[in-house]
Amino acid sequence: MTNTSKQLQIYECYFKLYDGSTDLNNIFDQQQYIAIKCVHELKKLGYNSSLEKFKQSDKIDILKIIWQSNANNPHALQLLANICLGFDIHVDKIWNGILKRMVKSSMHRDLNALVDVLSCYAHLLHIEGLTKAWEWILLQPFKNANQTQSAEQEDKLHKTLFRLQSCPVVHSLNLLEFAEHCLRLGKHHMAAVLMAFCKTPEQRQSIKQLIPQRNETMRQKILELEDVGILSAILNFVLKELCL
């Protein structure tokens, strides 16, 4: 076992035992931990590196080297993201590439965490990679759902709809695809809610045309979505659009 591996084990062992009673920053250098973890992952990918060499190196140069030979490797993509986050690298071109490749590799856990973190940086909200990442994450529960009703599936769909409501790039998503999945599942009321997130009247109309069911039952189902966190202003807008 290398010295770096031993150091990493010590840190991670402490994390498991940490009870939250003290401030982590007062106990150890988090930057040191990040560096150790990155060096450990670099070695696993076949790069000959040391802690001191890593600390002294330009992190952008390291990113370029990894990208050139391992851009399609999920482990390398995780490392690229960790280096960027750990050393405050928020270059839009770099993140755009990482996120697109992560979507291509279906890296659900990583993307699920990254979309929220990266959405805090206003200059990253315009990149295609972040939009693709949000869309991929939010579409999965609808794509994976089936017409067999279950409380667990219903809960997942409700949570996803709630998250969609607060997605910072919701107007850039392919909402028609979301609506089509809702209709496939018989969730016409959920499809209707998507109209509130449309960027243009044309997009709204394209979803509206897919919803044939407009009755009191539909109205009640839409109103009940307030119980799972959908804003009443959104629901009232949808009801008005459907003349319910």
From TrEMBL:
<feature type="domain" description="RZZ complex subunit KNTC1/ROD C-terminal">
    <location>
        <begin position="3"/>
        <end position="239"/>
    </location>
</feature>
<dbReference type="GO" id="GO:0031267">
    <property type="term" value="F:small GTPase binding"/>
</dbReference>
<dbReference type="Pfam" id="PF10493">
    <property type="entry name" value="Rod_C"/>
</dbReference>
<dbReference type="InterPro" id="IPR019527">
    <property type="entry name" value="RZZ-complex_KNTC1/ROD_C"/>
</dbReference>
<protein>
    <submittedName>
        <fullName>Kinetochore-associated protein 1-like</fullName>
    </submittedName>
</protein>
<dbReference type="GO" id="GO:1990423">
    <property type="term" value="C:RZZ complex"/>
</dbReference>
<dbReference type="InterPro" id="IPR052802">
    <property type="entry name" value="KNTC1"/>
</dbReference>
<dbReference type="GO" id="GO:0005737">
    <property type="term" value="C:cytoplasm"/>
</dbReference>
<dbReference type="GO" id="GO:0005828">
    <property type="term" value="C:kinetochore microtubule"/>
</dbReference>
<dbReference type="GO" id="GO:1903394">
    <property type="term" value="P:protein localization to kinetochore involved in kinetochore assembly"/>
</dbReference>
<dbReference type="GO" id="GO:0007094">
    <property type="term" value="P:mitotic spindle assembly checkpoint signaling"/>
</dbReference>
<dbReference type="GO" id="GO:0000070">
    <property type="term" value="P:mitotic sister chromatid segregation"/>
</dbReference>
